[in-house]
Amino acid sequence: MQNLKANVQEPCGDLIRLEKYSACNSLSRCAYFRVPNFLETDIAEGAYGELINDARYVRTDRMPNPTGIGLGILKPVDQCLSPNVQKCCDLLTSNEFRSCLAASIGQKLQVAKPPTLFRMEKGDRIVRHDDVLASPSNCISVVLHLSKNWKRQYGGNTVLGYVQRVEEVRPALREYSQHRWVFSTRRSVLSPAFNSLLIIALRKGMAHGVTTVRAHAYRVSIVCLYGREANGPASSNN
User: Fold this and answer.
1) CA distance 92 to 95
2) In CATH, which of 3.40.30.10, 2.60.120.620, 3.40.50.2000, 2.102.10.10 is domain 15-228?
3) Alpha carbon distance 218, 238 (integer Å)
4) CA dist., res. 187 & res. 193, Å (int)
5) Strand runs labelled E in 5-70
6) pLDDT per residue over 68-109, tens digit each?
7) Is the Cβ–Cβ distance between 137 and 231 less than 8 Å?
8) 160 exposure class (CB count in 10 Å sphere: 0-12, 13-18, 19+)
9) Residue 114: CA atoms inside 13 Å, Cβ hemisphere, count?
C-alpha cells in the first residue's frame, strides 16, 4: 500500500476525546475502552462506502495466490488506497494519534503493524489470539469499526477474555494459529458500532477474537497494532 506514513495536518478524528479516554493509564486498569463517533461523519460514511463498493479492493483469499482464508482481509489491486480510507490510515499512523493513545499505557508507541483493511462476510471469523505470543513488544490493538446497523445476532462480535490456558494445536485449513487460547469465565462480548474506535490492551493472560459472521452483511473495519518504542521502558503487564 502507498502513503501509510501519516502527514496529517487536520486530523479527521476526535483526538481530544481520544486523549481524554486514554488519560490516567486507562489500559493498565481495564482490558479495553471505546470512543464513539470518532471520525468526522462524512469521512466515516465515505470510508464505509469505499470498503464496500470500490472495485480496487479485493479480498486476499480471492486473489490468485490466496492468503488470509476466512479473515476477510482486503488489499487494493493497484496498491493505492481510496481517498477516505487513506485518511483513516493516515490518522491511525500519525504522531498525533500515537501520542494521544500512549497516555493509556504511559509509554511511547510505534506502529507495529500498519493498518489492515477488513471486509468480513458470512462464514468468516477470527480465532482467539493475543498478538503478543510471537511479538512481546505489542501492547495495543486499535479497531476502527465502520459496519453500519450491525446487530449482535449477526455474529462478528469481538470477544475479549482472560486466558485459562494456551494449547498447541495443528491448524485446520481455515485457521492461521498454531495455538488455542482457552478463555476463563471472565470475558466481554462487543458488537461492532459504526464509527467507533475500539482500543484493546494486549498482554499475556488475555486474548481476543471475532465470532463467526452469521448474516449476509459486511463487517468492515480497519485495524492497526502498536508496540512499545524500542528504547521505551518494559511493561510489567506484557
Assistant:
1) 9
2) 2.60.120.620
3) 34
4) 19
5) 32-35, 57-59
6) 999 999 999 998 999 999 999 999 999 999 999 999 998 999
7) no
8) buried
9) 10
